[in-house]
Amino acid sequence: MIENFDEITKQTLLELENTQKQFWNIARVTGEFLNLLIRTAKSKNVLELGTSNGYSGIWIAKALKETGGKLTTVEFYEKRIKPARENFEKCGVLDIITTIEGSAIKILEYLPEDTKFDFVFIDANKSETLKYFELINPHLIQGGILAVDNVLSHREKVKPFIDAIAQNPDYQNVVLNLPAGLSLARKLR
User: Fold this and answer.
1) What CATH number does residue 154 fall under?
2) Which of 69, 116, 122, 162 has a CB 3.0–4.6 Å from the CB of 148, allowing a cystine?
């Protein structure tokens, strides 16, 4: 997958992979999977909770360049926003990304009612995952996809979310054995 990217993007992703533990980035295979999924689903309006240094956002935005979509990404830590934006600019995706600094819960609580997403990726505070889900649900379109990272590596912290989505008749959910574990759900209605 990375072979299809320009040299600057390839180099940037490789450099960011060296910071995976420091910045809690997703694994490369998870990035490749998200990229493929967004392109296949032809997603256009994507929300990411947990920007970090921009690694996952690059994978997502590269797919959105193909679909003609946009990414809104939310990061709590101010010190991560500048490097993320620099990485987005280097990779030629800054023009389709809106980065918002602040608490994901606060931002989600004040989203306008008519704000809709067709794909949401959550890689933020694991103990707040259930709350994120509850706040995102009205904004995820029917047929939309919700991907949540770290559901195996942080099993206990995300258990309330996994239990809730498994019992929700409006969602079809599967947990994929990607590094750290990825919950992948489709909103049925």
Assistant:
1) 3.40.50.150
2) 122
- Per-residue exposure over 52-69, b if at least 16 CB sit within 10 Å of its own CB, e if not: bbbbbbbbbbbbbeebeb
Give tens-digit pLDDT for 15-71: 888 887 777 788 999 999 999 999 999 999 999 999 999 999 999 999 999 999 999
Whole-number Å distance between alpha carbons of 42 and 66: 8
The count of domains in the chain is 1
Give 92-126 pLDDT, tens digit per residue. 999 999 999 999 999 999 999 999 999 999 999 99
Residue 95: Cβ within 10 Å count:
10
Structural domain boundaries, residue 36:
2-187
Do 57 and 35 form a contact (C-beta atoms < 8 A)?
no
| CA-angle at 21, arms to 19 and 24, nearest 5° | 95
